[in-house]
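Sorry, any thoughts here?
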Amino acid sequence: MQEPIHGGCLCGAIRYNIQFLDGTYPEVTSFCFFNSFVSLLPSQPTTCQCTQCRKNSGALVAYFITVASSNVSWIGSTPRSYSATPGFVRTFCKQCGSWLTWANMNEPESVFILTGSIDEKVLLGPRGRG
């Protein structure tokens, strides 16, 4: 069984675990991310540069990983939701405003997790001493 991926919002009020018990762990690869190697993310993360994603994230490009909704468990506060477009919803922390997910309500079996909300240990690996 693959190790779960952990993440959450900036203030820590919302945490999540992504477990891959059903064998749906995404294809694994390594790629350079700010001079560090990411080894636990899908080989093809989804990106979006639409106005809504840019405004919501405050960045030019939003990066997501797609996982089965059934693989995500939420810990702590319940994420709030916002729909700028009918049929689509974004979730965020009501305390700190961290954007956590995006979902197409017509495809409830999948959820897009904001890559930046994944814990640093997963994104960058263990830090060296020094």
User: Anything to note?
Assistant: Residues 47 and 63 are 5 Å apart (CA to CA). The longest helix spans residues 51-57.
